Amino acid sequence: MAERIEDIALAMVAKGKGILAADESSGTIAKRFDALRIKSTEEARRDYREMLFRSEAMKTAVSGVILYDETIRQKAKDGTPLVDLIKAAGAVPGIKVDTGAKDLALSPGEKITEGLDGLRERLKDYYALGARFAKWRAVIDIGPAMPTWNCIHANAQALARYAALCQEAGIVPIVEPEVLMDGPVAAHDIDVCYGTTEWVLKTVFQELFVAHVVLEGMVLKPNMVVPGKKSAKQASPAEVAEKTARVLRECVPAAVAGIAFLSGGQGNEAATEHLSLINQIAGLPWPVTFSYGRALQAAAIETWAGKAENVAAAQRAFNHRAQMNSLASIGEWKPDLEKEAA
Ligand code: 13P
Known about the structure:
The chain is α/β, with parallel strands linked by helices. The protein has helices at 5-12, 26-35, 42-53, 57-60, 69-72, 82-88, 119-128, 149-168, 190-210, 237-251, 268-279, 294-304, 311-328, 335-341, and strands at residues 18-21, 62-67, 92-96, 101-103, 111-113, 133-140, 172-179, 219-220, 258-261, 288-292. 1,3-dihydroxyacetonephosphate binds at residues 21, 137, 176, 262-264, 292-295.
């Protein structure tokens, strides 16, 4: 496995591959399990992740896996550390290191992501456990008087402090400033998302510069430019792709190792189609791929439903979604491929 952060970052965005975000906290995975009446025990969480990490797509479509603290310490049923399953498949193990988005004081409705205290020591621990990249997610919500400069600036500065600590520890930071698509206002159309995303990304790269973060040794995980779910004005896939590519070109230095999108509540196929269309736009200076959680896992988790007898079918569902996104990461996904598989 590569050891220079620049090389690890390039491996994370290797051609035709993307990142599996499997770093749901115990609370979040419990919500996903509850919806399907699966009991969220430590063993069930392990069995579910083991099923994903032993799938064929891990070798062909997945460059890295983001883990949660519990998972990075877990062993498969046969005693193999889950981290070793990921490495054996040729993917890089990563770890979510933020401790969640908390209410931002005196800024009603806004969040600040926490987790900097003690991070230097935790990163050493995670490195020893095999992690070679990390993730920190900041959330920016769009509302009647939101976001504020206070929220954007505080989150951007925290992302920069996190990224610098990671690089000091030989770990590649995934820098994830997510502009949410499920905010409360109907006026949140694609252009509001564009303007907010532009403001956030410019601020984040300013703070990364101030903090001496090496751009070649990081991966950006942004939202796509999409209308809010409550917006009366929806947008075509072509418009999403064009505006997303435009805002990234405006804000993201070419030296950044790569871009790996979050799915953020987009439908599974929409997330794939958008990624493919973005990759059909000529001349983007970075590799552009996926780092999906829900859009990669939704079908697999439903098919699995907590039952050992469903493992093979759930792996097929995961392989399919990962394969579709692999094609999208080189601009070669087509709707017919979904129908053929069905
Ligand atoms: P989604 O793709 O479900 O948005 O999750 C990606 C992620 O890692 C969010 O932090």
